[in-house]
Amino acid sequence: MRRLTWFNTTALTLGFAFLYLPMIILIIYSFNESKLVTVWAGFSTKWYGELLGNEAFLSAAWVTLKVAVFSSTLATILGTLGALVLVRAGRFPGRTLFSGMIYAPLVMPEVITGLSLLLLFIGIGLDRGVFTIVLAHTTFSMCFVSVVVSSRLVSFDRSLEEAALDLGCSPMEAFRLVTLPIIAPAVISGWLLAFTLSLDDLVIASFTAGPSATTLPMKIWSSVRLGVSPEINALSTLMIGIVAIGVISASLITKRAALRQEAEERAAVQA
Amino acid sequence: MGQTVFEPWNDPDAKPLIQFKNVTKRFGDFVAIDNQSFDIYEQEFFALLGPSGCGKTTMMRMLAGFETPTEGTILLGGQDIAPIPPNKRAVNMMFQSYALFPHLSIWENIAFGLKRDNMPKDKIDARVAEMLKLTRLEQFAKRKPHQCSGGQRQRVALARSLAKAPKLLLLDEPLGALDAKLRQDTQFELMDIQEKTGTTFVIVTHDQEEAMTVASRVAVMDHGKIIQADTPARIYEMPNSAYVADFIGDVTIISGTATPAGDGYDIAFAEGQPILHAKSDIQLAKAQSCHLAIRPEKVAITAEKPADAANALQGKILDIAYLGNLSTYHVELANGQVVKSQTANTRRLSRRSFTWEDEVWLSWTDTAGVLLKE
């Protein structure tokens, strides 16, 4: 191991501080006894207790979860199909237009996406609520899924599908039994990405949500405008915890799978 | 007691398994297969041989059902296979990349096709066990493809494609990924398995030695056309064109003009060089240009002019290619023409008689060379 020089140590410390200091402060103050956010008055978990009793926050959390699950699932299905067409279909009239359009939401300002969806929903007379948020989130997150899945499909050996057809699969069976299991990791990470995007989206949800549905980011944002309460800190700490657990376990699973494969390959060479 | 020779292509009553009838395949403007008609018979080991881009892979993919002919028909057992999708054909293919399913074990890979046929479980078990035994993979059944060596993967791919007992097995460069030693062993193994199962094999390869070793008939292809389809021995000894002679094995091609003489021709090829003699059945007019193709092993190399050789030329040794068991001498004649001569190295190196720059005589009989039309 190379030793860290003072320069490296400083750069590392500053970098991590830049990234994590705000979160650490937020977490510390979520255990503050005082109602005033900036004044430390001793350790307490009472804001977590109050949070559990807050109907508005809990219902917002429930709405957010529903929206995230439905929209990410829908986006994964549509995004995967889009990726298949983009990678597989070869040349067809309008291919360039289609591939440009599928990636457009990646660079489109959220305000514009949100506004245009709002106008559409009003135009077709759709009542705004959970359903419209799901539609909106699906629209903007499916392109992320399609980017992730198509990068996997590009390196996918087509002869695997041909082999499946050759051995008696219908094209649908070949997709279900061969293609899907092999690209599954990309599809799952696409789903996770869409889920996370939906979970923390504020702008698009604000445009497309009706009075009947409020997501957690919207709720947090509106409460903060009336002043930051320690309850919000507690809620944010919980979200950080959930995300951290998710990310860490996902990377652990990937790493263990890689290690196991390496060990198996070594065993095969020795055999 | 004489064994019956396996030569269904010479039997007018034999019914071919596969018939290509005026098959043309175009990709846009590119003609991949150019109006080809030929037959493949049951239990044949048929090799499609040619350089890359000659259309041999397209030919195979049309049999598998991944491409359809632009014109013409392909019959399998008398039935037009154009409308039949790949999953309904009694044809299986072994892919160049093996295309083993990485998420399935060796056992599941081999059972994959059988499960699609809704075969009862005990029958699947028995058939997979039989395939594992045939390809000597019994102890690897539970492994995943990435836990196997290249040779083992090759055998899994073969077992998987044979499991459904297809009428026809297609092999796309099956040994391309193996090293030379393993490839030789596997060639004999393939022939053995082909004989045991009685399946018709069609192999695509660019390796002429491989085609010659395994095949009952070899079709030499170039630019979407089969130039010659015949047994390995006839392809080698009686090539029908300079292309085939040159593609298969080592050869010296001397171009000249022919004059009928006796039951053959006299060939004049350069001023100041002796007239060559070759016996041949082909019809050439007087002074028609022609090629004489001579295999290096049929050319003798001597220090003195041989007394009664039909053809004898003098030259200087330009190069010696030492192959261990054989040496090929490249001898340059006075007019610049290079003629190759090959001798077996029956003696050790220090006892060898010729070296670079030596003046030598080359000689061959009047039946050694093959006379070819321009």
UniProtKB/TrEMBL annotation, chain A:
What InterPro entries would the database entry show? Bact_Polyamine_Transport, MetI-like, MetI-like_sf
Q: Which UniProt keywords apply?
A: Cell membrane, Membrane, Transmembrane, Transmembrane helix, Transport
- Reading the lineage from the top rank, the first entry is Bacteria
> What does the record say about its membrane topology?
Multi-pass membrane protein
Q: Which GO terms describe its biological process?
A: transmembrane transport
- Give the stretches traversing the membrane: 12-31, 67-89, 101-124, 130-154, 174-194, 232-253
Compartments it resides in? Cell membrane
Residue ranges occupied by any ABC transmembrane type-1 domain in the UniProt entry = 61-253
What is any one of the record's Gene Ontology cellular component terms?
Answer: plasma membrane
One of the Pfam families matching this protein, by short name: BPD_transp_1
Q: What is its main location?
A: membrane
Check the record and name the PANTHER family matching this protein.
PUTRESCINE TRANSPORT SYSTEM PERMEASE PROTEIN POTI
Please report which protein family the annotation says this sequence is part of: Belongs to the binding-protein-dependent transport system permease family. CysTW subfamily.
Q: Write down what this protein is called.
A: Inner membrane ABC transporter permease protein YdcV
**What is the organism field in this record?**
Roseovarius aestuarii
From TrEMBL, chain B:
Coiled-coil region(s): none
> EC?
7.6.2.11
The protein's UniProt keywords, in alphabetical order, are: ATP-binding, Cell inner membrane, Cell membrane, Hydrolase, Membrane, Nucleotide-binding, Translocase, Transport
Q: What SMART domains has UniProt attached to this entry?
A: AAA (SM00382)
Q: Which GO terms describe its cellular component?
A: ATP-binding cassette (ABC) transporter complex
Ranges for domain ABC transporter = 18-248
A biological process from GO: putrescine transport
The reaction(s) catalysed by this protein are: ATP + H2O + polyamine-[polyamine-binding protein]Side 1 = ADP + phosphate + polyamineSide 2 + [polyamine-binding protein]Side 1
InterPro entries registered for this protein in UniProt = AAA+_ATPase, ABC_SmlMolc_Importer, ABC_transporter-like_ATP-bd, ABC_transporter-like_CS, Mo/tungstate-bd_C_term_dom, P-loop_NTPase, PotA-like, Transp-assoc_OB_typ2
**Signal peptide, first to last residue:** none
Which Pfam families does the record associate with it? Answer: ABC_tran (PF00005), TOBE_2 (PF08402)
Which top-rank group of organisms is this from? Bacteria
Q: Name one GO molecular function term.
A: ATP hydrolysis activity
- What does this protein's UniProt record list under function? Part of the ABC transporter complex PotABCD involved in spermidine/putrescine import. Responsible for energy coupling to the transport system.
Similarity comment: Belongs to the ABC transporter superfamily. Spermidine/putrescine importer (TC 3.A.1.11.1) family.
Recorded hits in PANTHER family, A to Z, give: PUTRESCINE TRANSPORT ATP-BINDING PROTEIN POTG (PTHR42781:SF5), SPERMIDINE/PUTRESCINE IMPORT ATP-BINDING PROTEIN POTA (PTHR42781)
What binding partners and quaternary form does the record give? The complex is composed of two ATP-binding proteins (PotA), two transmembrane proteins (PotB and PotC) and a solute-binding protein (PotD).
Q: What is the protein name for this chain?
A: Spermidine/putrescine import ATP-binding protein PotA
What species does this protein belong to? Roseovarius aestuarii
Taxonomic lineage is:
Bacteria, Pseudomonadati, Pseudomonadota, Alphaproteobacteria, Rhodobacterales
